[in-house]
Amino acid sequence: GALHLLHPQGALHLSRLARRRGPVLRMRLGRREVLVPSSVGTIREALVRHWGDWLGRPPSYLGSLVSQGGQDLALGAPCPAWRQQRGAVRVALARAGGRLGPLLWLQGRELCEELRSHGEAPLDPFEVFTFHTCSTIARLLFGDLVPPPGELRAFSCCLGELLQLWGCSSVRALDLLPLLRALPNPGLRKLLRLVQHRDAFVEAQIQRHQVGRPGELGSSQGSGAACPSPPPDTVLGVLLGCDSGARGAALSPARLHMALVDLFIGGTETTAAALGWAVAFLLHRPELQARLRVELEGAQGPPGPGDMGRLPLLQATISETLRLRPPAPLALPHCALRHT
């Protein structure tokens, strides 16, 4: 995941090596052998056709620090607890999916209002997109018990800084050169502070939603006090077992915590980046903006997640944006689970 940091030209250098040596490069980093697929065909062969063989994750010093020892889906190695966590998150997202359409419409209106409030003053749209994407995920996870906007905005800034720091060469080098871990590293110290902030926010939401559940410590049964509890059609409500229709064993506290972290990190940065690039491209294509406006104004009611079929130009614009600037992280390292 950090091979591009080994050379000043990064991925371009690996591409030149691939043209000379072939589409699969085999390298040795210390005692570790690394395979680098460098063509669309070899990448598709490994990560699509044989994806189950490459689900593993190699040991990572930084990955362990930010994932509570590999307790999340993105950086954790496949094991029974990991598969249970993945299944539980899938069920929770499916159960909460009915809230997504109205939620996106509400959040979209708030996003437009904030953008209009700036008037002609300059602004960084990526920060605005990051906050509203984070707010959308929070509403999907927590329902009406979403944290206050100020607290949520601080959390979204924390996520952005955390991901930016994690990508810094001075921090990523700690995975490649263990001897550097003995030296002072300001970037690592700041990264750990951001992880602490992230975890404190998520844990506070879990504790807040557990108050008032039957059998939970701190519940006020019989007291008549109104204690919050997660609605059963939210992601956290399903993961906490509030939805009787969703079956499955309860997740461990660490797995539950990191499942929420995964959803925030996996959804916030990627969606905000895609929106930012779409706006950047459309600024150079005013005629496309006009055509998109006509298509949206001609739609029957507000478009929802399942309405892309009747909005072909919008669908094409989104697809082209994702093709030109794919926001999904491609540098996550994979480890073979068996000989291939």
Architecture overview:
One of its GO terms (molecular function) is steroid 17-alpha-monooxygenase activity. Keywords: Heme, Iron, Lipid-binding, Membrane, Metal-binding, Monooxygenase, Oxidoreductase, Steroid-binding, Steroidogenesis. It comes from Erythrocercus mccallii. This protein has 340 residues and is mostly helical. Helix 7 (149-166) runs antiparallel to helix 9 (186-210) and helix 7 (149-166) packs across helix 11 (253-283). The longest helix is centred in the C-terminal third of the chain and has 31 residues, at 253-283. It has two domains: 1-49, no CATH class; 61-212 and 225-284, Cytochrome P450 (Cytochrome p450, Orthogonal Bundle). The relative contact order is 0.13. It has a two-stranded antiparallel sheet. The protein contains 13 helices and two strands; from the N terminus they run H-E-E-H-H-H-H-H-H-H-H-H-H-H-H.
